[in-house]
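cron nightly-structures :: item 1 of 1
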Amino acid sequence: MTTLLLTEQITREDHGSEGNYVLYGSSRSQITEEAEYVKKQVPQVSGNKAESKSGWSWGCSPVATTMKETEEQLLVVSRENQVLKLKLEATREAGVQALRSASQKLYENYQTQSEEMKKKHEREKQQIQACNLQEEEKLQESTENVSRLAEGIREKCTRIAEMEKRVQRMEEEKKILIEKKMSLEKMLQQMTSRNEDSKRCLDLQQQISTLQEQISHLQHVIRAQHHGLRG
């Protein structure tokens, strides 16, 4: 009796929570080759004979039964392969979808952080610009104050210079008046000693008195000018 040995081994590997399945087993071509081998070992029937020498029917023979079972097993294996293929495709699609979701979330987080950084940078930029503008205004005000102060100092120096020149002129004028007064006083003294015309002497006295008033006035003005300069 010819014995057909069929060996099947199905091994499933599970990787991760998603489940990636791989099926290992005899291929269809290997099963077909074994079936052909069995046919060659069975005696050939000739003409219209439907039974073998042993009296068994080919349709009822163990080989035919085994071949039928083998085909059924092949169909089961094929169906399982199709199911596993669908599961694998679903797992792959789920992985791709999860990767897309994670990438989208990362991109959204990046966009959010980028927008926050831009807003923060813009606020800092505005603060710096406001501080610069405030400092520029302070500097402009300080420059204007310094300019006004310098102008005031220049004007004051000019006034002081003019006052000094005026005092100098009054001092010179006072000196001339004093000399003229001294000359008239000397002349009056000489005329008095010679007993000259009293009218002439009276005129000299009036001139001396007028000069003394002018000298006193100049002295008062000069004193006031010096006080102003000291102030």
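cron nightly-structures :: done
Residues 62-193 form the longest helix (132 residues).
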